[in-house]
Amino acid sequence: MILMVWLSLVVATGLVGCSGFFFGPGTKTSLTTSATNATYGTSITLTATVAPSDSAALAATGVATGTVTFYDGTTSLGSGTLSSGTASLAVSDLAVGSHAVYAVYGGDTNYNESQSADTTVSISSTLTATTTTLSASASSITYGSAVTLMATTSVSNATGTVNFYSGTTLLGAGTLASGVATLTTVALPVGTDAVTAVYAGDSAYASSTSGAVSVVVAEGS
Question: Where is the Bacterial Ig-like domain (predicted)?
Answer without folding.
Answer: 31-123, 134-218
